[in-house]
Design a protein that fits this description.
The protein is an all-alpha fold. Helix 2 runs antiparallel to helix 4. It is built from five helices and no strands.
Length: about 120
């Protein structure tokens, strides 16, 4: 997670006997609404940051990984940027910028939405 990167959250819910899809969906929305009631810890931020820094640096080592890195960045709407520049940007992002970004993302807005799909 960085000040200019995206935040993706995927949750796979398995219904237990006695629960309906509607109940599960309501519980899911409540969980998302309460996601930031407990402040994000410095450890959580550093773990996410270090994972992405390592991923970016490793992407520069193999042509196929580099190509995948560029495709991933482009799919997020960013211009081509080298893995080194991306890693430096992540490293130079402050914890407060990460917290502000997360708080803005979790807030309800016209562009935030939840996709739910029932599967057997």
């Amino acid at each position: 997670m960085a000040k200019n990167a995206d935040l993706e959250l995927t949750i796979n819910k398995q219904l237990m006997p006695g629960f309906s899809l509607d109940e599960a969906h309501e519980l899911f929305k409540e969980t998302l609404a309460n996601l930031l009631n407990e402040p994000i810890s410095r450890t959580e931020i550093n773990q996410a940051r270090q994972k992405d820094v390592v991923w970016a640096k490793n992407s520069a080592r193999r042509p196929t990984a580099f190509l995948w890195f560029l495709k991933n960045i482009a799919s997020d709407g960013f211009p081509p940027v080298s893995p080194t520049v991306f890693a430096d940007t992540l490293s130079n992002t402050t914890d407060q910028e990460v917290i502000d970004f997360a708080e803005n993302i979790v807030q309800s807005s016209a562009t935030s939405f939840v996709l739910a799909k029932k599967v057997d």
